[in-house]
Amino acid sequence: MKKILGLDLGTNSIGWAVVNEAENETEQSSIIKIGVRVNPLTTDELGNFEKGKSITTNSDRTLKRSARRNLQRYKIRKEALIKILKNNNFITDDTILSEQGNKTTFETYSLRAKAADEEITLTEFARVLLMLNKKRGYKSSRKAKSTDEGQLIDGMSVARELYDRDLTPGQFLLEQIYKGVKTEPDFYRSDLQSEFDKIWEFQKQYYSELFTDELKEQLKGKNKGQTWTICQKAFNIEGESRTTKGVEQKIENYQWRADSLKEQMTLEQLTIVFQEINSQLNKSSNYLGNISDRSKELYFNHQTVGQYLYEKLSQNSHYSTKNKVFYRQDYLDEFETLWETQSKYHKELTDELKKEIRDVIIFYQRPLKSQKGLLSICELEGREIEIEKNGKKITKIIGPRVSPKSSPIFQESKIWQILNNVQIEGNVIPNVQQDLFGEATEFKYGKRPLTQEEKQTLFSELNIKEKLTSSQVLQILEMKGDYKLNYKEIEGNKTRALFFKAFQEIIE
User: Fold this and answer.
1) Over the stretch 107-136, which tens digit does the pLDDT of each residue have?
2) Is pLDDT above 80 for 289?
3) CA spacing 20 to 30 A to 304: which of 127, 137, 167, 230?
4) Dihedral over Cα of 405, 411, 416, 419: its sign
5) pLDDT tens across 420-435, in order?
6) pLDDT for 369-414, tens place per residue?
7) In the chain, what are the helix, strand and coil shares in percent, each to the nearest 5?
8) How far is CA 402 from CA 235, 399, 416, in A?
């Protein structure tokens, strides 16, 4: 008899088992003892568990691993940059690359701001490049107009037009919809907030007692529903009786936003105007919105990131540069400006060197790794083969991979899987008694699965919606009374629902 200890080592637990394994036909294998040791929860995890929140013990490790990788990649870039600067005689091993001495705290920031317009030495320029290498900016593929570098981020061209023509987003949208443009562009948060402030100040002359600073502060950061609740109470209104729908209502909303800047509007109309603006403000992330507004400020002030930061530090020596994030494109624009200016004074700054420092070192971005390997092989069509690896024969499963979760095919399959498991509880079991057509006339309490006709009806609805609640399901099936489902809600085709929603917005 052979004794074997088996261990299952996981991130959150360790499973173990001690077994007797038979070595001949007269012996019988048996389990001696088994168990599992679960890693104890931390105080924070235990608190979340008691509150009913999901616990992900891996998330903290993931964040720390990501921070370590970013630090490692930064160090690699720094070493490569110092090496190329030494090879081109910008610096030597004895060169001091940091501030040294009294009153030199912001010296590198000063050099960085100066380099955009004036000559600095190659050694000083090397310090500036090392600073740029440390913080490269936020790169968002979602915000780019195209995959090509050098393109302005979405919203900049619109912001420029608003500035040049002295328009608000509401006035701009009204013009666009009359031109036949059905999609709304991205606006900077500062432009939307500016429109809100302008309308508030203009209408304040007609409603001075109601338009208080306290009320304005209450409306800040609120969504559409919250805005209505606050205004309804403050203005003592019941609601606007509207006859318009769809595109006509959208035009009316834009028209009210435009008219609010030049004539007195009713409190009901102003409430809808504030709802629309706050809704647009809430659609954008505060984090990305702040980045966008900083980028816009650079553009209209004709400043580089370095000039912006040095100006803030000059005004307040305690100004924190932490979390003052800019777009990657802003740093690229600054690099181009600095290099173009300094290349006028230093012949060493060639185009070849520029491409190597910019594209290979400082602003190099590795391509995203394909995640196709995470898709498992189909259990029904997969097969095992033997391959040789490192001189050893191993077994490998090959075959077609399963559909990803975003695939419409997977979504449809999931819907049918759930529908086959749905049961209706109530007076659904037919008695023997039948009418002239052979259908049951009396029913008793019990459970039954869905009929094929009911499944098909629900599938038609679920295939274009994200989900259906149990009450909605019963309503679709026209089942009135005390009926229940074994599902609180049924997931639909999320992929197709998103497409359907997008097409609906375009049509409207």
Assistant:
1) 999 999 999 999 999 999 999 999 999 999
2) no
3) 167
4) positive
5) 999 998 887 777 666 5
6) 777 778 888 888 889 898 888 888 888 888 988 888 888 888 999 9
7) 50, 15, 35
8) 57, 10, 17
